[in-house]
Write a structure and sequence with these properties.
The protein has about 140 residues and is mainly alpha-helical. The chain is about 60% helix and about 5% strand.
Amino acid sequence: MAQRSSTTRKKKARAGYMISAVAELYKLHPQTLRLYERVGLLKPSRSQGNTRLYTDSDLERLEVILTLTREMGVNLAGIEIILNMREMMSEMQRQMQTFAQFVQNELARGLRSASEPAPRNALVRLTPPKVIRVQKSESPEKSKS
């Protein structure tokens, strides 16, 4: 059953809306959608007949664009900068999650190996590290003042 829903989801993601349907849905002129494509804000896929097909992710991006233009008064150059920054932030977030997972795995591995006793037949026997506390003394310059 899980496989069927993922297959359906993939088909839905690939299915597209034609430019006329999108323009009517968002109360836009089709030329506006073509302009957004020309300046690089939208990248709809194309059918075999070269018809623009907008996916659900394209529509989500269009909603962001329309919010920025209609409600916040941002121009097209500003929208491009904002969308690029959002993509960079998403990528950085993904990288941070990957790094955090790596660190957690390494810490868990280190804790497991620290709790295991050292092998008796090792070539070089290691003693457990000792913690030495060092007190910071005042610098001579401060004591003279």
